[in-house]
Amino acid sequence: MSDGTATLLINNQTDVEIVTLNREKVLNALDEPLIDSLLEYFRRLPDRPEVRVIILRGSGRVFCAGGDLAGGDEMAEQSGPVPNMYRVQDKLARLVTAMHRCPQPIIALVQGAAAGGGFALAAAANFRLGVENTRFICSFIRVGLSACDCGLSYFLPRLVGLAKASEIMLTGGEVRAEEALKLGLLNRIVSLEQLESEGMKLARQMCTLAPLGLRMTKEVLQQNADATSIEAAVALENRTQVLLGQTEDMQEGFKAFLERRPAKYRGR
Q: How much is the average pLDDT of 4-27?
């Protein structure tokens, strides 16, 4: 049951937004109101070009413990009628799809456990920063469900390779920080005290780049991960470069490079 506290907090830092899962008492477990809030937030991002980068974090000591199956809310009804379970599953599917498709890069700050749906949210991000106690847990299969849920069967093989993804998902495995770093599941490990500042540092680094160039890089990277051929991949690259080459920002970037000064991009 909700206590009236907002389950999703949005902290706008001009061109960077910090999005916080705010259900600390239940380890930021995903109930339906939180899923609805996340879905609405990420669906609106394509129409918010002033926001350049998203930082996704959990309140307290855990990133996200997955679905709230014991919280007395509608998520607990997943053991009930098929239509209700499918409705919730469809929302989760639309959520990770919206994360994948939004033009802003997403940085996940993963402290403690990212289990089940929390694992999937982290995998849907473009960067994952962790701490020493970070753990990715494939918990779906541990409770009688398939490990293939919330887009994890799409994202995880692309992050760590099919063989390792198969091992994690078919065994209900747990990946700790050091292994996650070696596999490429984590981009880096920092201290808990530095986690948010390192996330903001990475976000600010991206904000020094041309807005459309950053946006199109994320788009092309993700489309070409599924490219049918090298020819299809380079064709998309070529069109993108020609398009960006006509922008004022490209002219400013080239001029700044020659003058050995920081570029002043205006998103034009």
A: 89
